[in-house]
Write a structure and sequence with these properties.
CATH superfamily: Haem-degrading domain
Shape: globular
CATH architecture: 2-Layer Sandwich
CATH topology: Beta-Lactamase
Radius of gyration: 14 Å
Order of helices and strands: HEEHHEEH
CATH class: Alpha Beta
Helix content: 25-40%
Structural class: alpha+beta
Number of helices: 4
Length: 149
């Protein structure tokens, strides 16, 4: 019998993009927003008119990083500093791991079912847009404490 698991649906992803885009509009910056499924694969992506081209890969890789590590990329950044347990992790996975804020895992009933990544503004703005997008999926629970998966 095949094993089943829960993952973000395309409908979830569309709601997340809409919520993230609304927050980006409120901030006044065009954004790149990526949503990945439980396997870390891209489900949906939004490149708002005028959003930085360099931020496309960053948004996608932040979403992948949040899912691959099952923690926010902001928490990952703290653990990736010199002398910390994940120092150098940004060089793994063919360089797709991003170690600054803007990527959040999405959990349902304690299980990671996908992630969102955003990029275009400051790290703080990226986190705001990611949180708005993540809030469109119920129930949204921010990442587990650092070091907990």
């Amino acid at each position: 019998m095949p094993k089943t698991f829960e993952t973000l649906s395309l409908q979830d992803a569309k709601r997340m993009l809409a919520a993230g885009e609304a927050k980006a509009d409120q901030i006044g910056l065009p954004y790149n927003i990526a949503v990945v499924d439980a396997g870390g694969h891209l489900v949906a992506f939004s490149h708002q008119d005028g959003a930085l081209i360099a931020s496309i890969d960053l948004a996608i890789h932040k979403a992948f990083s949040a899912r691959a590590c099952d923690m926010s990329t902001g928490d990952l950044a703290e653990l990736a500093q010199p002398g910390k347990p994940l120092y150098g992790i940004q060089y793994s996975n063919s360089g797709k791991i991003v170690i600054f804020g803007g990527g959040l895992p999405i959990r349902r009933k304690g299980v990671v079912i996908g992630a969102v990544g955003t990029s275009a503004g400051t790290v703080e703005q990226d986190i705001e847009v990611a949180e708005a997008a993540a809030g469109a999926v119920e129930p949204f629970i921010q990442s587990a404490p650092a070091g907990v998966s």
